[in-house]
Amino acid sequence: MPSGFSELKSRIIDTGLCTRCGGCAASCPVDAISFTSRGMELTGECIECGICLEICPGKGMDLSFHERRLFGRSRKKPLGGPIGIHRSRMDLTASEREVFIKGYYGGRVSALLIHLFEKDEIDAALLTDWSGTEELSVGRGVVARSR
User: What CA–CA distance (Å, rounded) separates 41 from 8?
Assistant: First the structure.
């Protein structure tokens, strides 16, 4: 059974579940995956280790099961949309001015992660670093361990 990039591509990328977090590229031990302007691409030789698929937040979730469990419903149409199953959606921005200005789209994720770090709810977070990139849509995965 394929366990490398080909499986990641067919199960996650081609089905629209890729969030472009960069985790697969950051975790690839042979740097065979790159985040390009077209999305995640195999740019080297995959050794089929499966790490990229294991780390991917888009895999392994039975959305139909969770929809039945959480919402008591089942649909015949495939579950879709970029944010998955949800009851409601809230738009937010960081209240701290510096985070709002320096953060991506108003510092939404940054503000949430800062809060989680300050409350000792998380030890680390996998993020995408956009600094120093020539193209806006190209970033690299980094691990943040503090604010």
Answer: 10
For residue 18, what pLDDT band results from cuts at 50, 70 and 90? confident
Confidence band (pLDDT; 50, 70, 90) for 9?
Answer: very high
> For residue 43, what are its two tokens?
């740019």
pLDDT tens-digit readout, 60-102? 666 677 777 777 877 666 555 555 556 677 778 889 999 888 8
* Distance in angstroms between the alpha carbons of the first and the last residue of the chain: 40
Cβ neighbors of 127 (< 8 A, separation 6 or more) are: 109, 113, 141, 142, 143, 144
Dihedral sign of CA atoms 48, 50, 51, 52 in order: positive
Contact yes or no for 16/26 (Cβ under 8 A): no
Q: Which domains does the chain have, with CATH numbers?
A: 5-58 (3.30.70.20), 61-86 (no CATH), 97-144 (no CATH)
